[in-house]
Amino acid sequence: MKDELMLIGEIADFFGISRKAIRLYEKKGIIKPVKVDAENGYRYYSAEQIQQLNALLELKALGFSLDEIKMIIDGKTAKIPLLEMLEKKRQAWKEAMNSAKYKEECLDNIIHNVQDSQTAEKITEMTEEERAWLLVKMVCIEDVRAQKILSEALWL
Question: How far is CA 56 from CA 21, 35, 94, 105, 142, in A?
Answer without folding.
Answer: 11, 20, 22, 34, 41
